[in-house]
From TrEMBL:
Main localization (coarse): membrane
A Pfam family of this chain: zf-HC2
GO cellular component: membrane
Membrane topology: Single-pass membrane protein
PANTHER family, per database record: ANTI-SIGMA-K FACTOR RSKA
Name this polypeptide is given: Putative zinc-finger domain-containing protein
Keyword terms, alphabetized: Membrane, Transmembrane, Transmembrane helix
Subcellular location: Membrane
Gene3D superfamilies assigned: Anti-sigma factor, zinc-finger domain (1.10.10.1320)
Natural source organism: Bellilinea caldifistulae
Origin organism lineage: Bacteria, Bacillati, Chloroflexota, Anaerolineae, Anaerolineales
Domain of life: Bacteria
Amino acid sequence: MKEQLNSRDLILLSAYLDGELDPREKARVEALLQSNPEAKETYESLQNTRAVLRNAPLRKVPRNFTLSAAAVQQPRRPFVLIPALRFSSVLATL
């Protein structure tokens, strides 16, 4: 039966692939890769995924996915009468 990797191990494998680990964590991941076939298989899968993504052609973002400065709305202020309406609703129930 294969030993399941925990979420911390998955995060460490990803960080190891990206070269983001300190020497102590790097040694821990290398030991994990040597002793755990599931970890090694997962790491190889991450490597393959990264290679596919890096080799994918870059595509220009479609125009309808970008917003002009005029199209971006300012955050709306809450309706000013809401507190007064709430108060009048409370009074009406009394």
